[in-house]
Design goal:
The complex is a heterodimer of chains A (about 250) and B (about 450). Chain A is α/β, with parallel strands linked by helices and about 250 residues long. Chain A is about 30% helix and about 30% strand. Chain B is α/β, with parallel strands linked by helices. Helix content of chain B is about 35%, strand content about 20%. Classes of the chains: A alpha/beta (about 250), B alpha/beta (about 450).
Chain lengths: ~250, ~450
């Protein structure tokens, strides 16, 4: 049996928006495909070997928790970049997404250092951007998909000119409430503000990440049989409808 | 500047609006008259509160404020005429509406929304404020916990001279407010036999307020509430002035404990289940004591108490019974689950998740609830409410069999399904979010089995 090794960074600190729901979806869907999942929590000061994981996850925290782990995360920039460079899929949500950029500048002007995996930086704004969101993405050429979730962030994330966003905002604020884009993608590393949690109502993305994790492990990309995702589709439809009706805008 | 009506004329106008609201069947008039009054005169609440001869007391917390406040009312009401926002309308408008409807009241007793506390306190100028706990809750509405705590701290600093604080020392953020004001009364639990084996997933304030080191817990009771101490800098739980000791949980029916107060110690049998209600009772006893109640009055009031509506409320429906436990955030839902399990787990549960503003539009919190121990006992779940499918996913990804989950977003039909699957004489357990709870009560009331919510305000 193939074992997918999942590294979950700072689960004790970064777990504010039900990040464990994303982990549960990865673990269950892997199991339904006959894959084993070895889940490892990576805490402050723990070693991070860029070759030790087939998938990395970083969740979101409140300001205080994020400030507590930011220096430790920033110091892991090289290891994370090395992991991403070998194709390790990464999912970073909300605070984790911000801290994998170059820096996060608070309203006071103080800067939290980032790990520098994503070519972006984030500056705290006055009004929080809160609401349901709907994105359109094309992670594989020609395969248009949607992601539905919820966002709640004060940070305005600015991508570098040549950076690739995760998706186009159909409804909601997105990275900064004005660019029309959300998230960031570097190879198999994805960053996004969408929680909800993200993966239960967007299972195609869970499968995308798992397929790349298996490829990272075995050198071959599997083609998964579809699962019975009726509930997931229904939850996605409700969430997408919410975004269209009441997604945030300035 | 607009000419101001005499207060009496403003009151008459706003009361007419309350009657209109009930006639139009748009609600119970629990917030509209207050909204109207504050529109006519933004300072009306200040003036109404200033007329109370015994002043006011405020109760705020993420969880338990309605129950705590109702317990205090039960203790004080034989002797003092109260203006009490019993229906749970706990913003400025709700407090104003309550004062409008309470002719001849001597003392104001108000539960206050965590976010509205600074504004209400500034206007009402309370003589006592009881603060219970801060948990992650409706982050889309309140923002982050730290920010609520900062606003509370600023509000506490601005309280009138002589105002007494009653604080839950078991919550690091709340207990630390004792340093802001002399004479604070600190309460908590003191019975490590009921401690959790470890901190729950939904524990929030688990890093030292001063230095960020993880607290060490001699006992963690609910979420991050307990007897904590920082191993690095020594910041820990303040000494308790009041507490509950020697706690005996008796399933779904009751709990008994020794209530230790500055005025002495007494055994109390509370006709409500769960450790969280012990926190509510100790908070209520502490606040009532500060407001002048004797230990006898406190014990009698607590033992006579029955649940605030929707919070462990039993409603007879024909030959079956509905048991409602309001769930609204991870810490509270965990306690509902723990209480159900302690009473012998049900086989079926109706869980209803709405996503209106009062529920929180962000439903991610259901993934932070430890539903797993309950699901392990259930044969079936009826998932209902506007986000029924999301709830069903929560169960599915907990490993619950998908074919044992019935998804029925419509609450009336879901209730029928649940009742049909409950045998005659049996009890259907319902875990609704706030607006789902109100809707279920309305459905049951329309069928003639329960009173509409505003009648509780009478």
């Amino acid at each position: 049996m193939i074992a997918v090794r999942v590294g979950h960074l700072y689960p004790d600190y970064l777990n504010i928006y039900a990040d464990r729901g994303n982990i549960a979806v990865l673990a269950r869907r892997a199991a339904w495909r006959g894959l084993a999942v070895e889940l490892e929590a990576i805490g402050v000061g723990d070693p991070l070997d860029p070759d030790a994981h087939d998938l990395l996850y970083v969740g979101g925290g409140q300001d205080r928790e994020q400030a507590l782990i930011a220096p430790d995360l920033a110091a892991r920039g090289d290891a994370l970049l090395a992991a991403a460079a070998t194709g390790t899929p990464v999912l970073a949500v909300c605070g984790g997404y911000q801290l994998l950029g170059r820096f996060y500048r608070e309203r006071s002007g103080q800067e939290l250092p980032g790990a520098g995996v994503f070519p972006l930086h984030t500056v705290a704004g006055e009004r929080r951007m809160i609401g349901d969101v709907l994105l359109e993405c094309e992670l594989e050429p020609g395969e248009r998909r949607t992601l539905a979730g919820f966002e709640n962030h004060a940070g305005r994330t600015r991508l570098d000119a040549d950076a690739t966003p995760l998706g186009r905002v159909v409804a909601g604020f997105g990275n900064d409430g004005e660019s029309g884009y959300e998230g960031c993608r570097v190879g198999n590393a994805l960053g996004t503000y969408l929680h909800g949690p993200l993966l239960p109502r967007n299972p195609w993305l869970a499968d995308w990440l798992l397929a790349r994790a298996v490829e990272r492990r075995t050198g071959e990309r599997p083609s998964f049989e579809p699962l019975a995702d009726d509930l997931e589709r229904e939850a996605h439809a409700v969430s997408a409808r919410r975004a269209r009706h009441r997604g945030g805008r300035f | 500047m607009r000419p101001r009506l005499p207060l009496a004329a403003e009151i008459a106008l706003a009361r007419a609006a309350a009657r209109l609201s009930r006639l139009a069947r748009t609600g119970g008039g629990t917030t509209l008259p207050g909204k109207l009054l504050t529109r006519i005169d933004p300072d009306a609440l200040d003036r109404l509160a200033a007329r109370l001869p015994l002043g006011s007391a405020l109760v705020s917390a993420t969880n338990g404020k309605t129950t705590t406040c109702s317990m205090v009312a039960e203790i004080l009401s034989p002797r003092v005429r109260l203006a009490h926002n019993r229906s749970g309308a706990n913003l400025v408008s709700g407090v104003a509406s309550t004062l409008l409807a309470a002719d001849g009241a001597q003392l104001g007793l108000f539960e206050v929304d965590e976010g509205a506390l600074p504004d209400v306190a500034r206007r009402v100028r309370p003589r006592a404020v009881c603060l219970g706990n801060l948990f992650r809750d409706q982050l889309d509405r309140y923002g982050e916990l730290e920010h609520v705590a900062e606003r509370w701290r600023a509000s506490v600093r601005e309280l009138p001279e002589g105002a007494r604080l009653v604080l839950n020392g078991d919550d690091p953020q709340v207990g630390d407010l004792a340093r802001e004001r002399a004479g604070a009364l600190v309460f908590g639990l003191d019975d490590p036999r009921h401690a959790q084996p470890g901190l729950q997933h939904a524990a929030d304030s688990k890093w030292c307020l001063r230095c960020g080191t993880p607290y060490e817990y001699a006992a963690a009771y609910i979420g991050h509430l307990g007897d904590y101490r920082c191993p690095a800098c020594g910041h820990g739980r303040p000494p308790l002035d009041s507490c509950a000791r020697d706690i005996e949980l008796a399933g779904l029916e009751s709990v008994s404990f020794e209530l230790v107060t500055p005025a002495g110690a007494r055994r109390v049998r509370l006709p409500l289940p769960g450790l969280y209600n012990v926190y509510n009772a100790v908070a209520a006893a502490s606040l009532a004591g500060v407001l002048g109640a004797s230990l006898d009055e406190i014990v009698v009031g607590l033992e006579r108490f029955s649940a605030a509506f929707g919070r462990f409320e039993r409603i007879r429906i024909g030959d079956r019974q509905l048991l409602m436990l309001l769930v609204k955030n991870p810490a509270g839902a965990n306690e509902a689950v723990r209480t159900l399990l302690a009473g012998g787990a049900p086989r079926l549960a109706l869980i209803a998740l709405n996503d209106e503003i009062a529920d929180g539009r962000d439903v991610s919190w259901i993934w932070d609830v430890d539903f797993e121990p309950l699901l392990a006992e259930l044969d079936g779940v009826v998932a209902s409410g506007e986000r029924a499918a999301e709830l069903a996913l929560r169960c599915k990804y907990a490993g619950f069999a998908e074919d044992a989950i019935e998804v029925e977003p419509d609450l009336a039909r879901a209730l029928d399904r649940g009742l049909a699957r409950t045998s005659p004489g049996g009890e259907l357990v319902c875990l609704p979010t706030y607006t789902a709870m109100l809707a279920v009560r309305q459905i049951v009331a329309q069928r003639g089995y329960a009173r509409p919510y505003w009648e509780h305000a009478a």
